[in-house]
Write a structure and sequence with these properties.
By secondary structure, this protein is mainly β. The chain is 3% helix and 45% strand. Strands 8-5-10-3-2-1-11 form a 7-stranded antiparallel beta sheet. A 4-stranded antiparallel beta sheet has the order 4-9-6-7, with no helix packed on it. The two termini are 22 Å apart.
Length: 139
């Protein structure tokens, strides 16, 4: 199966990006299935964990809460942090280059689906000090 034919991808089908705060399994990306205009995947955050304030220069992001509960921060156009409690079914829009962070405040795991447009911001995650690959066979 070529990348272009890989239209149906489960998180367990791909290696994940691992971090001290959780993991990201890219299920849509140029290297996974040839997507060119966006990328995305499933983020798993253990209870009490989250990713710190960061941004994706030149890219917008959509965060959809699949399960769990947390606090989502997205800065307003003036750089002021706007934080809201989020749960299953909530869609968060992060405007281009805007700083944001997510924290799992629930007792159990939190799962998100994230989309980046254009594709590519997720590649910068490989430069983080705590980055590691979690092989699909180990998940």
């Amino acid at each position: 199966m070529t990348k272009a034919e890989n239209n149906f991808v489960y998180p367990g089908d791909v290696d994940a990006f691992g971090f001290d705060w959780g993991q990201l399994a890219l299920t849509v990306a140029p290297e996974v299935n040839g997507a060119r205009k966006f990328s995305g995947g499933v983020v798993d955050l253990p209870s009490g964990k989250g990713h710190s304030r960061h941004n994706h220069p030149g890219a917008e992001e959509i965060i959809f809460v699949i399960s769990g509960h947390g606090q989502q921060m997205v800065e307003d156009p003036h750089g002021n942090p706007m934080t809201q409690d989020v749960g299953p079914g909530c869609t968060v829009f992060v405007p281009e280059s805007r700083f944001h962070s997510t924290l799992n405040t629930g007792a159990g795991p939190m799962q998100l689906f994230v989309v980046y447009s254009p594709a590519g911001p997720e590649l910068a995650l490989r430069d983080l000090a705590d980055f590691r690959i979690i092989p699909k066979a180990n998940r």
